[in-house]
Amino acid sequence: MSEAESNHLNTFNQSNFAENSEFEDKSISCIDCEKDFIWTAGEQKFYSDKGLQNSPKRCKECKHAKNERISSIADAKASGVKQKIEVAVYCANCKGYTTVPFYPSQGRPVYCRSCFLEMNPNLVNNEK
Ligand SMILES: [Zn+2]
Ligand SMILES: [Zn+2]
């Protein structure tokens, strides 16, 4: 669930909880921490309104932790921080040993940083 959705869920619980009669609070055991948590009537109504078939599997803490993990992976992908890899190669130009931050595709020559920049001088200013 996205942050926007869970925010919406919180708002929903506050405003509409009292009007629900067909749902009752349910106790569910969390698949991550195995503690029981309450799936409130308001949340059940929300799920049913959204046409969601599955009951939640995680307590709020674990759901939050899971969202954190997912968003930190997404952040890392966006910023490239966690994706930093080093592959040892020999430069196709100067034959020097170097490492590149990507997996070279087969059959394509790989160049060391200085040879690469020599061949692509216009990239120098675009580097982040
Ligand atoms: Zn949990
Ligand atoms: Zn080179």
General description of the model:
The chain is of the alpha+beta class and 128 residues long. It folds into two domains: 60 residues, no CATH class; 45 residues, no CATH class. It contains four helices and four strands. The strands form two sheets. A two-stranded antiparallel sheet has the order 1-2. It has a two-stranded antiparallel sheet with strand order 3-4. β1 and β2 form a beta hairpin. The two termini are 33 Å apart. The mean pLDDT is 80. It binds zinc ion (2 copies). One zinc ion (ZN) binds next to α3.
Number of domains: 2
Would you report the number of β strands? 4
Query: What ligands are attached or bound here?
Result: zinc ion
Q: Name the helix and strand elements from N-terminus to C-terminus, one letter apiece.
A: HEEHHEEH
Question: Which strands sit side by side, in order, in the main sheet?
Answer: 1-2
Q: Based on Cα principal axes, name the global outline.
A: rod-shaped
Radius of gyration: 25 Å
